[in-house]
Structures are given as structure tokens and as C-alpha cells.
Specification:
By secondary structure, this protein is mainly alpha-helical. It has 8 helices and 3 strands. A 3-stranded antiparallel β-sheet has the order 1-3-2. InterPro entries: Tscrpt_reg_PadR_N, WH-like_DNA-bd_sf, WH_DNA-bd_sf.
Length: 182
Amino acid sequence: MSLAQTLLGLLESQPRHGYDIKRVYDEHFGRDRALHYGQVYATLSRLLKNGLVVVEAVEAGEGPERKRYAITGAGVTDVAEWLARPESPEPYLQSTLYTKVVLALLTGRSAAEILDVQRSEHLRLMRELTRRKLTGDLADELVCDHALFHLEADLRWLELTASRLDQLGSQITKSQTTESHR
């Protein structure tokens, strides 16, 4: 997720102080990882420098002055273009898990054990997400569904890979044999 475009989108609905931007962000997007104030103000500073936001007002308070930020026309255009652009699907063609399986086979360790441990961890996380989904609001439900669907796909890959370990091991052994004869 692009933090800059997300903050711009929050400002498009109405001008806000940095504190309010963080609060609204955390409410909608930061349930698992709240945004740090430093991230908010550093991003606002870049957006200001790039002409995508302006300081609409500076208000005196009990502490330091509070700036209220507003989106500019260029900022609205930036958000609109970002929203219209599809995200690139991430195919995970070279995953860490695949690397671990191959390295286990190369080093004589149990690739099946690595897959079993990973399967258990996926199932544990799926149970946790299912509990969260059942007790949360609609936003939690949608976020958990997204994660659960990805975990289900990973589980299918784990099962398929487990069923092909002998074949993969043979290919790796053949590759090592060919390499050692060079």
C-alpha cells in the first residue's frame, strides 16, 4: 500500500491535522500495525514539498502550533491516477519456502519436515484469522478473508510440493552429478 496516496485520499475527504490523519488511518488500515507519527509527518512534508498538499491553517494550541493540511488539485489527480491503476499481482515465483525446500534436498535434510512445520504454522494462523474474522467488524472480515485465501493457496502448494519431493530430489541429484563432472 502506498502511504503517500493513502494519506492524500484521507485528505481528499476533508482537511485534517496530522494527529487526525493518523487516527483515521489507524482506524481503517492500521489494525495490525499502527502508523507512527513520524511516518505521518515525514510523508506530509514530502507531499507538501511536491505540491500535493498545502497547509490550510496553523492553529495555536496549548502545545506546539497545529497545522491543518489540505489536498491540492495535483494531489487529487495523483490519488485518482493511483486508484485507477491496477496493482501488479505478486506471483511469488521464487519464494523463501521453495528455497528452503531445495536447500534441504541439497544438504540432505528433510524437506518433508520443513513442509510439515510450515503447514502447521499456516493452519495455526488460519485458525487465528478465522477467530478474528468471527469476532470483528466487516473490515476485519474482509481483511481476514484476503489473508485466508492466500494461506489456502499456500497450503495447496505445500501439498503439491510434498507429493513431488521424490521427483524434485531426483532432479537435484542429477543436477549435482552433472555439475560435479564438469
